[in-house]
Design goal:
Length: about 250
């Protein structure tokens, strides 16, 4: 099932993203004692991340049950401005009660990091080699070129069928990276794609009009879960009503 929500600005979109995090965390911790969530880097989700460390979300989220993972990471030190984990530390990790055992940052070494992070995933989820984790919630974004996570157009990682994590190179900045693969992403119970900015309007129009079926973002199709698209008005500026209606059945 797919759902599109268009917000009047990025702040309201961020608020919606934080509310989904809070609600899903409470649901999962209440029913099974833990909440396994993977977050993305980039500019768009940072407003949401900051909100998680503020009221009403700070007191509402059962932090003791949260297990936090990353969708992708750049091969840079934590204190580098391009580090996704570093940005999360700055935005909210240092202000919420999460212990080190609850955090699962990706390694900074892309060459060996894919194997190490895959092992971390298997151990955290209690799985054996060849099994796939099912995240409770994954946050994604979409780049101007249609990439999502660090899965870029034309990259061989898009065709991965068995590995959970891939080493790639690309993006802005152009760097070595680690990324969860489509088999890992598409098994999530819930995916939230957050997209903001006028510079994303063209790619969102292509995505929802189905005129570019090879865009990496078009391959985010949860096998047994559902996806919510959170867009601000600028990113949704090129969408027609018919595009939005079709988007509900992507």
């Amino acid at each position: 099932m797919n759902h599109i929500v268009i917000h009047e600005n990025s702040q309201r979109m961020a608020l919606s993203g934080a509310a989904i995090f809070s609600a899903k965390a409470k649901e999962c911790v209440k029913t099974k004692g833990s909440f396994f969530v993977a977050i993305s880097g980039g500019k768009t989700p940072r407003q949401t991340h900051r909100m998680l460390a503020q009221e009403p979300f700070y007191s509402d989220i059962p932090w003791q049950g949260v297990r936090l993972f990353w969708v992708d990471e750049r091969g840079v030190p934590v204190d580098h401005e391009a580090s996704n984990f570093g940005a999360a530390q700055e935005d909210f990790l240092g202000r919420v009660p999460l212990g080190e055992h609850q955090l699962h940052p990706m390694p900074q070494d892309p060459e060996n990091g894919a194997i190490r992070y895959e092992r971390d995933l298997l151990q955290a989820f209690g799985l054996k080699e060849g099994q796939f984790p099912v995240f409770d919630l994954i946050y994604l974004g979409v780049g101007r070129d249609g990439h999502t996570a660090s899965l870029f157009p034309g990259d061989a990682a898009l065709e991965e069928k068995s590995r959970l994590v891939a080493a790639v190179k690309g993006g802005e900045p152009y760097l070595d990276r680690l990324t969860l693969t489509l088999p890992a992403l598409n098994r999530a119970e819930q995916i939230v794609c957050m997209v903001s900015g006028r510079d994303k309007a063209a790619v969102m129009k292509s995505l929802f009009a189905r005129v570019s079926p090879n865009l990496p973002a078009s391959r985010i199709k949860p096998l047994n879960g559902h996806i919510t698209w959170l867009l601000d008005a600028d990113a949704a500026g090129g969408l027609s009503e018919s595009c939005v209606r079709r988007g509900l059945d992507l």
